[in-house]
Structures
1.
Amino acid sequence: MRLVVGLTGGIGSGKSAAAEEFARLGATVVDTDAIAHELTGAGGAAIPGVERLFAQATLGGQTRVTQDSVVVRVGGLTSLTEGPSILLLGTDDFHPASARYFATAQMLAAVRALADSLRVMADFFAALPADQRPTGRSPRVLGVNDMSLPWGGLFDLGGSWHWPHMAHRTGRSADIDVRRDPADDNLALAVFSIWQRLGGRVLNERQALNHLHLEF
Ligand SMILES: [Zn+2]
């Protein structure tokens, strides 16, 4: 009878030590890790196939090949633009302003609907007699911080930002300007209510990052 044992596990979990012990006891050890390295190393048997895949991946303009990776585009993203009810606010050292507001058509429509609703609310409040006007900030123009990049993918290039900014990969996220100041408490409630009614999800990042993170 022949017994076949598979050794799996994370880095440093002891696979090699266990394999050595099997070998010492007379077992034949097949190291697939070593085989994979040989196949994909310089001049390896798998290299022509890998090169063919990389070449195919560049067809159609939906992928971009760098030295050692294939970047795949998230399809269907277009950019939010400023309008009467939307102001684009985001900045950092990595991404130009024109590249940070890409999203799916549904997300763009939802952000515009939110901004328009807040503008109607602001106009309504402004029309009330002063003693009946709710306190706090009620902006006629919604500040949008970041959405997704033109091709989607990792926004946080340095890997150092707070989750869920990591989520800004597929055109379904937006950070909007709702500050931790108590003057923005009512605004935050309004955004939660409107966004959820539109069918989206809100993550509160006012305390740490001065914004609400919206998902749609
Ligand atoms: Zn976010």
2.
Amino acid sequence: MNNSPVRPSISTQRKPILAGAVEETAASEVQKDEVLAGDENDAPDEEDLQQEGNIEKVKLAPSPVLPTDKEIEEHNITHWPFRSWCKWCVLSRALGEQRGRARQDEVEHSVLIIGMDYFYLTSEGVNGWSEMLKFLELEDDARGHARVQQLMDDKEIVKCLIVCDYTSKAVFATVIGQKGHDDEEYSVNFILEAIKWLGYSTIIVKSDNEPAMLKLVKVAVQRLRVSLETVREEHSKEYDSKAHGGTETRIRSVRMLFRTLRSYLESQIGKKIPIFHPILAWLLSYTATLQNIVARGSDGRTPWSTIKGRQFNGRLAAFGEMCRWKLPNKGPAARNRGNMEVQSEEGIFLGINWNVNEYLYATAEGIQGSRSLTRVPFEQRWSLEAISAIAATPWQLKVPRDPEVIFPQDVPKEAPPRHEILPVRRL
Ligand SMILES: [Zn+2]
């Protein structure tokens, strides 16, 4: 038996009972009934209770803490970590699965092991190959494959590529497979850029045995030999099934954040964004980047800090926001706030070009990079017209806006915040 006093110390001033302070007490049922039945006058005061014996403490269900406007504002930038008070986080989780499964398959690796796989954007969200077939009720046979190809041609499915580093947990994702551009060259370059960013000199490249992916890996490996010390391809059946599982886990981890950021963006513009629209290609890439920046592993480090040796310290805006940036080739004198109007340009924030450390913006002419980012007041932040007109893609940067594009499907539009909100400085 526990010999320490079970009676909690209660001061004469009332203190809130916190869930963390609840103790097991052997309280008498009679006493509890008294308290419950008593009215204002005959309820025993605390001193009586202390004299009479133990107190049955109630266990409080955790009460959600209301965030401040500033906290909401900051959270809306990344939607990370999951917050129970955030509508978009909760909706995404309700539709999908729990976050956090990414750690299950993790094995310590001393060399860079890169996993690659295709995945797909469907009306349901982000799917791996087998998940997508299940969702579409198709078999993994010639007929199923033909149907998938048909749906891709009809822009109802978008093919994507994920590259992940098993060591740092960094992920890179991009849309590929849209008609009219060189998939293979774009994909190979994307893989090479990712490996360059990761900066290892010894790597093992893993992929499944799908012929198309194998070819891609071979081309990438061939080019990598120029700059990297050792590249080994691993294609044994056993090894690959593990690699595939690992990659699928990464795809799932991208899925939920992508869904959250997308539904937040849609609620700001009041429209559902069609699956093939260029802004979703940008959002997909950014989702992976954001995950590298904000998702801490079991060692407490983010992939970004593992690779770069320090945490990402750039300022961020919410994806899809109208932002301003300073025009290039200006000296320190250009930082005069009074001249902001003539020295800055505006466009839609599309994320980060991680290889050159620049923000990406969609402008009337196409995509533009800059090292500066300034947010605008809430009322000017969300432009349905500017977002729907984005025509430039990660594989075709200089495509002017297309004002003909109209998003047909409405979604409930979020009301602007009640209070003025300070700009977010950093993560
Ligand atoms: Zn959220």
